[in-house]
Amino acid sequence: MYLRLVKQWDTVEIATTTLKNAMKREEKRLYKKLAVKKPVLANRVEPFIEKAVIDIAISEPAWRQLRVSHALKKQGSRFHRAA
Length: 83
What we know:
The protein is 70% helix and 0% strand. The protein has helices spanning 2-35, 47-59, 65-75.
């Protein structure tokens, strides 16, 4: 009888350990999902500026931020180069 109870206890212990591990994995997955930052729409630039920057970035991929800023300034766009 004692051996039978020990076997049952081992089975229960294995099952609870497996369940706890599965719950920890699911918890970590949910925390990662919640930790993903969503873009703040208030921090976006105007669509016409974004389109101008993308057009220059595609046409001149070797240009860096300062040169693109100067090119857009020549076209008449006024904004800070860090934007």
